[in-house]
Every structure is written in structure tokens, then in C-alpha cells.
């Protein structure tokens, strides 16, 4: 055997699980198709990031109409978290229960918020989250507080807080995995959508993976793209086939963990079909690849022609006034700040003339409106001619339109006469999840509540693919909490000697 546990993927799920298992002393091998991001002149260059797509993969997927596109997923040590906005927020307690939405209803989870609370607390500690539990009325119960104070508002965001309160909203601090002084030492930019090559942002590499690799029993193998999984006659995963620069390698371990992300994990399971599993591995339920969800999101820019926004990073506030049910009204979603949009970012991403982009960005307060996408078995990942086909069937759009309308109304009441909005298109990955859903019933789900495959007892899946619902907040902390829960379960059931 090459290890006691093989983990495929070093993103938030894989890295956190490795950190959980490392103290057991078991040999853990993490496989990552990418390499470590190295510091470069492009790290803080908006044109390189947003205009030239320097950090995007050289990869093509198909959409639902078989039209090719370049996905905005990233293959580095740390996965997509290397580029993320470092928002580490808990799902609200109500998100684990069935909820009626404008576009339908969510099914609820096989576990409750209370079942995951201690893991949320542990994940917040592992990722050194900055936050407070006193500001947001939708905040669920915490067994402990945050170890660090919130990332401070900049002066113009402090003024924005006051304006939003006067307009009747409840602005509160975003829980963030950011050491702001360390981040700004690397350049005067926001961290949102910027690659992390230092220690300022707590991502899967600087958080979970760094903790795991302190143990000599944990190894990381980069440049290793897993092509398929093999099974034995008992239905267990018997081998991991990966492609490297040295050719094809076969690796074996008693436990295999898949943590490649909602799209790639589903694609790998489907690509591993064999005689005993003609529809793909872990897929006796025919649910692998189905129920793909991607948040409904829009950028909303609020401006006053006579006021400038001098903020550098901006992303410290959120508003959840429209998140949960209000009387008989279904929930609409979460509002948070985007990382500060500059003229260079706006020009690179929108093709506006630079002078106009500078004029707009200097005066804009930039918001991110996010609404829940509901699970739909026809929204799915499949394979076609060797390519990934992602047919996202967007849902609950009425709720999102209402959220953007409410936000615009409140921003105008807060003193911004000009409010513009732009929805994110289908090519933008906005918290992809759901393709290997968790559940108690093996006929309608892929893994159990501890992320173990119903079909293969030595296979676990610990990434966003297991989320039964997308909620309307960033999923990174929930992925980490589920990985810690799975790690505790594995330690108690698989490593008993």
C-alpha cells in the first residue's frame, strides 16, 4: 500500500480532512493535479487577473447546448480557495431544514445545524476566522466566540454602515479568513478574486494543508491528475490511477477520499465506470452529477457623483435582512461587499474605456447579491466525447430579482442616486455544489451524513459536491466543517487498533 489514506484534491475539503487525520499518525497521501502558486508580478495585476485570465486553466468544458467555454475553476495546491474571497460564514440553522422559496422548496439535510456546530467552531479556529457573533440577528448559536476581532472597516465603509442603518438595514461584519496587515504588506489591493501567494489569506493551503504537513506522516504529491478509480470484486476502491509527467501511476490505500470539487469529483466518478458499475462509481442511485447548484449572483454598484470611495479592500460588510422568511415572504438571499472594484479591474473585465472605468470605480460602493439555487436532478454534470458537460438549469431567479430590487431601493434610500447591476453569467463559478448529494436513503443520495459512499465502503467524498442545498452564503466553512466531521468519523471507525 502507498498510504493508509489517499486524498484526491487539496482544496478546502481535502486539506481540512488531512489536518483532521494527521494527528492519528496514519500515512496520508494528498494528490493534487496542480502545483503551488509562486509569487509573481501578476499577483496584484488587475489586467493579468481579470483581463488576460493569467491564472485561469487552459481547459474547455461544454455548456448545456454543447457550446465550449473556459471554466473559471482553478487547479493549484489549495484549489479554488487560492482565489476566493475568504468569507468563512456558517450556514444559518434554518438552512438545514426544508424551506419554501419562490422557485420551489429545498429538501433539508440529513443532519441538523446542531450536529455540525462543534465542527463549525473547530473550522473557525483552524482558519483563524475574524468575526463577531453579536451583530447579525440571523446568526445561529455558537459554542464559542471568534478568536479574532473582525477585519476593520475602512473610513468610507464605516460611513456606509451608518447610511445602511439609516435606510433600515442591519449591516454586520463579514467573517473573514484574512490577516489584513499581512495581506496589505503584499500590495494595496483587495484579496477578493486575487491569487494568494503569501500568508495574508487563510485558504486551504495556508490553513488546513499547512497544519497537516507539520506532521511527517502527511505527504503532498503535485502534478498528479487522477484519471480513474478502480474497484475490486467486493466493490471497494482498489486503485487510484493518476497521470504524471513520468507517465501513468497506480496508487493504493485502504481508504480513498475524493475532494476534487463539485464538477471534477462527479466527472471522475462517471469516468470510472466499469462492468460492475456501468453508470459510474458511487452511482447506484443515478444521482452522481445531478442536482448541480451555482448561486444566483449579481454585482450591484452604488454611486453618488459627488462622493468618492477611497477604500482599498472594502469587503467587510454583509446584510442578511432578506435572508430568512419575513412573515409569508420566502427568503431572498445574502448581500455582501465585493472586494473593491478599481478602474483597472472594471476596464479589464468590462472593456469600458479606462477613463470612464476610473470615473465609475472611484465613486462606486460594490455589492455582491447572492440568492439560493435549488437542487434539480436535470441540472447536471455529464461527460461527452471526453469533455465535461455542465448543463446548469438555473432556478429561483425570481427571488434573486427581488433581492436585487430590494437592495437597489435601500441603496437609493441610503443616498446613492445611481445604482447599477449586472448578473453573473453561466460561465462564472459561484460556489458550485450538489453533484454527490448527502442523504440517508441510498436510492436518492450518493453519500451518508459522514460523507461515506453508500456504494463503496472505503470511499469518502468531502467537497462541495455533497451539499444537499446551496443555501445563500459562501460554502467554504461548511465544506471544512463537514470534512472535520468526516475525519472524526473515520478516526473512530477506521483507525481503531
From TrEMBL:
<dbReference type="Pfam" id="PF05199">
    <property type="entry name" value="GMC_oxred_C"/>
</dbReference>
<comment type="similarity">
    <text>Belongs to the GMC oxidoreductase family.</text>
</comment>
<dbReference type="GO" id="GO:0016614">
    <property type="term" value="F:oxidoreductase activity, acting on CH-OH group of donors"/>
</dbReference>
<dbReference type="InterPro" id="IPR006076">
    <property type="entry name" value="FAD-dep_OxRdtase"/>
</dbReference>
<protein>
    <submittedName>
        <fullName>Choline dehydrogenase</fullName>
    </submittedName>
</protein>
<dbReference type="Pfam" id="PF01266">
    <property type="entry name" value="DAO"/>
</dbReference>
<dbReference type="InterPro" id="IPR007867">
    <property type="entry name" value="GMC_OxRtase_C"/>
</dbReference>
<feature type="domain" description="FAD dependent oxidoreductase">
    <location>
        <begin position="4"/>
        <end position="263"/>
    </location>
</feature>
<dbReference type="InterPro" id="IPR051473">
    <property type="entry name" value="P2Ox-like"/>
</dbReference>
<keyword id="KW-0274">FAD</keyword>
<feature type="domain" description="Glucose-methanol-choline oxidoreductase C-terminal">
    <location>
        <begin position="427"/>
        <end position="483"/>
    </location>
</feature>
<dbReference type="InterPro" id="IPR036188">
    <property type="entry name" value="FAD/NAD-bd_sf"/>
</dbReference>
<keyword id="KW-0285">Flavoprotein</keyword>
<keyword id="KW-0560">Oxidoreductase</keyword>
Amino acid at each position: 500500500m502507498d498510504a493508509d489514506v489517499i486524498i484526491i484534491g487539496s482544496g478546502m475539503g481535502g486539506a481540512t480532512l488531512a489536518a483532521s487525520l494527521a494527528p492519528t499518525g496514519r500515512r496520508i497521501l494528498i494528490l493534487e493535479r496542480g502545483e503551488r502558486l509562486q509569487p509573481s508580478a501578476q499577483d496584484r495585476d488587475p489586467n493579468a487577473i481579470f483581463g488576460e485570465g493569467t491564472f485561469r486553466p487552459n481547459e474547455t468544458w461544454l455548456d448545456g447546448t454543447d457550446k465550449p467555454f473556459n471554466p473559471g475553476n482553478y487547479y493549484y495546491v489549495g484549489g479554488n480557495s487560492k482565489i476566493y474571497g475568504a468569507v468563512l460564514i456558517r450556514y444559518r440553522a434554518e438552512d438545514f431544514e426544508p424551506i419554501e422559496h419562490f422557485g420551489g422548496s429545498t429538501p433539508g439535510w440529513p443532519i441538523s445545524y446542531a450536529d455540525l456546530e462543534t465542527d463549525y467552531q473547530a473550522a473557525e479556529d483552524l482558519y483563524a476566522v475574524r468575526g463577531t457573533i453579536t451583530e447579525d440577528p440571523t446568526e445561529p448559536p455558537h459554542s464559542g466566540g471568534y478568536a479574532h476581532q473582525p477585519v476593520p472597516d475602512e473610513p468610507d465603509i464605516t460611513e456606509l454602515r451608518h447610511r445602511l442603518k439609516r435606510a433600515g438595514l442591519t449591516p454586520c461584519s463579514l467573517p473573514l479568513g484574512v490577516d489584513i496587515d499581512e495581506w496589505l504588506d503584499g500590495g494595496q489591493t483587495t484579496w477578493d478574486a486575487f491569487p494568494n501567494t503569501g500568508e495574508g489569506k487563510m485558504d486551504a493551503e495556508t490553513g488546513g494543508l499547512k497544519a497537516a504537513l507539520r506532521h511527517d506522516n502527511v505527504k503532498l504529491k503535485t502534478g498528479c491528475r487522477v484519471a480513474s478509480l478502480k474497484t475490486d470484486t467486493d466493490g471497494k476502491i482498489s486503485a487510484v490511477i493518476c497521470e504524471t509527467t513520468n507517465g501513468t501511476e497506480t496508487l493504493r490505500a485502504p481508504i480513498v477520499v475524493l475532494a476534487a470539487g463539485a464538477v471534477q469529483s462527479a466527472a471522475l466518478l462517471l469516468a470510472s465506470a466499469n462492468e460492475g458499475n456501468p453508470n459510474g462509481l458511487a452511482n447506484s442511485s443515478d444521482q452522481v452529477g445531478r442536482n448541480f447548484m451555482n448561486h444566483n449572483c449579481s454585482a450591484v454598484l452604488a454611486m453618488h457623483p459627488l462622493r468618492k470611495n477611497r477604500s482599498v479592500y472594502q469587503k467587510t460588510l454583509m446584510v442578511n435582512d432578506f435572508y430568512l422568511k419575513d412573515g409569508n415572504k420566502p427568503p431572498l438571499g445574502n448581500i455582501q461587499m465585493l472586494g473593491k472594484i478599481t478602474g483597472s479591474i472594471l476596464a479589464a473585465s468590462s472593456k469600458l474605456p479606462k477613463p470612464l472605468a476610473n470615473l465609475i470605480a472611484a465613486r462606486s460602493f460594490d455589492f455582491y447579491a447572492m440568492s439560493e439555487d435549488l437542487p434539480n436532478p436535470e441540472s447536471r454534470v455529464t461527460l461527452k466525447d471526453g469533455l465535461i458537460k455542465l448543463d446548469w438549469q438555473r432556478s429561483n431567479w425570481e427571488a434573486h430579482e427581488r433581492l436585487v430590487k430590494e437592495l437597489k431601493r435601500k441603496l437609493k434610500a441610503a443616498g446613492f442616486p445611481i445604482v447599477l447591476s449586472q448578473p453573473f453569467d453561466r460561465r462564472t463559478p459561484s460556489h458550485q455544489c450538489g453533484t454527490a448529494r448527502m442523504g440517508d436513503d441510498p436510492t436518492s443520495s450518493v453519500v451518508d451524513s459522514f460523507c461515506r459512499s453508500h456504494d463503496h465502503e472505503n470511499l469518502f467524498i468531502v467537497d462541495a459536491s455533497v451539499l444537499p442545498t446551496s443555501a445563500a452564503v459562501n460554502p467554504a466553512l461548511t465544506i471544512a466543517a463537514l470534512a472535520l466531521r468526516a475525519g472524526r468519523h473515520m478516526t473512530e471507525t477506521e483507525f481503531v487498533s
